[in-house]
């Protein structure tokens, strides 16, 4: 049987300590309560609404906290979602597979509804949230199924 190449179980705890606070603080930071602008070098800057210089190897003014928390959500989510359980068997693998399929179906159903119902800058803001949705739904669905067994 081919098994998934998963991260060691000890990384799951670290992942939870990164994932949960970053998820909460990331949602709060998108509301604009905390606004810290920094200048960072980027590979390509297309400008945002034509306000900055465009081109390769430019510097860009970015909002620090949404970007920082986005990176931490991804790192923490990968550590939580793809670390081994203490007992990793075929049942756990089937729960992983069911959770991935479920999270993708729900995520893309939401995206489909958004494409048909929301327009303008609100659509852009909501798409930022939906970018993290498959990973977040997978983690919560998998852990819900684990607790339910």
Structural overview:
The protein is α+β, with helices and mostly antiparallel strands and 149 residues long. The protein has four helices and two strands. A two-stranded antiparallel ribbon has the order 1-2. The mean pLDDT is 88.
> What overall geometry do the principal axes of the alpha carbons give?
globular
Ends apart, CA distance between termini: 23 Å
Note poorly predicted spans: none
Average pLDDT, to the nearest integer? 88
Structural class: alpha+beta
Main pleated-sheet profile: 2 strands, antiparallel
Oligomeric nature of the chains = single chain
Strand content: 5-15%
Strand order of the largest sheet: 1-2
Could you state the order of secondary-structure elements as H and E?
HEEHHH
How many beta-strand elements? Answer: 2
Number of helices: 4
Helix coverage percent of residues? 55-70%
Report the radius of gyration as a whole number of Å: 18 Å
């Amino acid at each position: 049987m081919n098994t998934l190449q998963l991260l060691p179980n000890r990384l799951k705890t670290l992942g939870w300590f990164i994932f949960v606070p970053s998820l909460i603080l990331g949602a709060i930071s998108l509301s604009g309560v905390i606004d810290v602008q920094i200048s960072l070098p980027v590979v390509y800057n297309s400008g945002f609404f034509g306000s900055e210089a465009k081109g390769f190897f430019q510097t860009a003014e970015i909002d620090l906290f949404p970007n920082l928390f986005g990176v931490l959500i991804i790192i923490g989510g990968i550590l939580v979602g793809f670390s081994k359980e203490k007992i990793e068997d075929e049942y756990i693998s089937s729960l992983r597979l069911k959770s991935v399929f479920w999270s993708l179906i729900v995520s893309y159903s939401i995206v489909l509804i958004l494409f048909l119902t929301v327009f303008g800058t609100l659509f852009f803001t909501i798409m930022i949230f939906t970018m993290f949705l498959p990973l977040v739904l997978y983690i919560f669905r998998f852990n819900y199924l684990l607790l339910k067994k």
